[in-house]
């Protein structure tokens, strides 16, 4: 069996790698000259800047990929106990991730904390509520407003008020199986999942896909955009500018709108549904500052007058020579990415100074016009996505978004191809 993979981002590369391990014939076609997809890092004036993910977690699967590719020597790990903050009522306030921090944080009043503790007495997720309704019902309006909205909404650049629970809360539903979210969080802490440290690499996150590419270069065709997927006997044909390739199975890892264009002839209904999925636009401004805080960074509470959504403190996490990454745009200010570099740089640096009390200079702007899957009402279109046998959609709008989840899905698919378990190689249910 030959598997044709469209895209050599982390999903496509990990899939090519795991297929090799399992003796499954696979080839990944990548439109761009560089592997890695949204994972992009470079050096500007000697400093490492992250243009996509700022970090990931050292899960067992990622750790073994690192070892397979000989990347251990360049691995950077951050302290799991570094604090994360929310900017609220004019100050940075620590998000409590431990019982002690819960008692001492000033992000919540005593009343707000007591209300949070009542979560095990509340009911499970309902299909007809939004993520905002759900979290408010579970934890109370203060915890929602001060903590959950900035953190949960911050992951996707979305507004939980616009995120139907049916699509946005699948992970929460799984956590609820242990009786309550609080109990599930405690279990996660006890079984060590919360202790998987944040990681990056000496030359940035992009070192991981680059190393995976180098390790599997004979199975990855760079600068080879797939233009169509066509049915071909019992399998498929991938048409590229350089020629056509016959494969038995196709795995599509590109963005929903791109995948729609590829599927038009074999599955027009899925293609039309995929075109409706909305992604939040994001702009990243890289700042350099002499501020020297300890922590992950901060998210900004929704009702603050700042336009900044949040800031990652790369300087503190991975000793990145004064670098801070400021996020602008998202569902709250979608027009932000149309502003000039100068204006975005000015907004980011002025607001950084307001929060941190130290000046910052903008050194780069990166735009993601279709950045994060929004998991908003447009996700109802996923109900109509049902690719034909032999075609699997596997990326961050079908499964979970984070790099660890992408790697896990790639391994699951390779295993399904290796064992001939076609039922397990189907498209995952959309899951935030
Ligand atoms: C802005 C941003 C920040 C994020 N931050 C984090 C974070 O901090 N931590 C974390 O764990 N996760 C983060 N994520 C999530 C994670 O990085 C992504 O979900 C993951 O990298 C997506 O990988 P992928 O391979 O599925 O898709 P992609 O990276 O999108 O790769 C798809 C590939 O397909 C290629 N392609 C497109 N069209 C074609 C075609 N016609 N033919 C051939 N190839 C084609 C593209 O060039 C691309 O390389 C972030 C995501 C984004 C967008």
Automatic annotation (TrEMBL):
Cofactor list: FAD
SUPFAM superfamilies the UniProt entry points to: FAD-linked reductases, C-terminal domain (SSF54373), FAD/NAD(P)-binding domain (SSF51905)
The keyword Flavoprotein is assigned to this record: yes
Group of enzyme by EC: oxidoreductase
Keyword Metal-binding recorded: no
Pathway per the UniProt entry: Porphyrin-containing compound metabolism
EC number(s) reported in the record: 1.3.3.4
Gene Ontology terms: biological process: heme biosynthetic process
Domain Amine oxidase stretches: 10-369
Cleavable signal peptide: none
Keywords: FAD, Flavoprotein, Heme biosynthesis, Oxidoreductase
GO molecular function, one term: oxygen-dependent protoporphyrinogen oxidase activity
NCBIfam families associated with the record: proto_IX_ox
Record's protein name: Protoporphyrinogen oxidase
Provenance organism: Haloplanus litoreus
């Amino acid at each position: 069996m030959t598997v044709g993979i469209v895209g050599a981002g982390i999903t496509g590369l990990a899939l090519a790698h795991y297929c090799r391990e399992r003796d499954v014939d696979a080839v990944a076609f990548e439109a761009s000259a560089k592997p890695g997809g949204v994972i992009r890092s470079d050096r500007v004036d000697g400093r490492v800047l992250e243009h996509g993910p700022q970090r990931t977690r050292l899960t067992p699967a990622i750790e073994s990929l690192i070892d397979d590719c000989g990347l251990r020597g360049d691995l950077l790990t951050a302290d799991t106990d570094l604090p994360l903050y929310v900017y609220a009522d004019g100050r940075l306030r620590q998000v409590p991730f431990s019982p002690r921090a819960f008692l001492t944080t000033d992000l919540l009043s005593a009343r707000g904390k007591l209300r949070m503790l009542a979560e095990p007495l509340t009911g499970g997720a309902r299909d007809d509520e939004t993520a905002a309704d759900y979290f408010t019902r579970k934890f109370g309006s203060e915890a929602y407003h001060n903590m959950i909205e900035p953190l949960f909404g911050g992951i996707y650049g979305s507004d939980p008020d616009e995120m139907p629970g049916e699509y946005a809360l699948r992970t929460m539903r799984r956590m609820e199986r242990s009786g309550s979210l609080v109990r599930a969080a405690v279990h996660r802490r006890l079984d060590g999942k919360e202790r998987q440290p944040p990681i990056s690499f000496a030359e940035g996150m992009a070192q991981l896909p680059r190393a995976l590419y180098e390790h599997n270069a004979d199975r990855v065709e760079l600068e080879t955009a797939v233009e169509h997927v066509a049915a071909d006997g019992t399998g498929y044909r991938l048409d590229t500018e350089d020629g056509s390739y016959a494969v038995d199975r196709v795995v599509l890892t590109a963005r929903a709108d791109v995948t729609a264009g590829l599927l038009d002839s074999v599955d027009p209904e899925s293609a039309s549904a995929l075109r409706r999925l909305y992604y939040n636009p994001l702009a990243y401004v890289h700042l350099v500052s002499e501020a020297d805080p300890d922590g992950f960074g901060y998210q900004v509470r929704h009702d603050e007058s700042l336009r900044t959504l949040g800031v990652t403190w790369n300087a503190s996490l991975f000793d990145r020579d004064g670098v801070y990454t400021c996020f602008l745009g998202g569902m709250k200010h979608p027009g932000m990415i149309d502003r000039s570099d100068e204006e975005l740089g000015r907004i980011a640096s002025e607001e950084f100074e307001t929060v941190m009390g130290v000046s910052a200079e903008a050194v780069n702007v990166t735009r993601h016009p279709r950045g994060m899957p929004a998991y908003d009402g447009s996700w109802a279109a996923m109900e109509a996505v049902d690719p034909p046998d032999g075609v699997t959609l596997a990326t961050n709008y079908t499964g979970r978004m984070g790099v660890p989840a992408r790697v896990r899905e790639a391994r699951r698919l390779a295993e399904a191809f290796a064992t001939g378990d076609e039922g397990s190689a189907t498209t995952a249910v959309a899951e935030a």
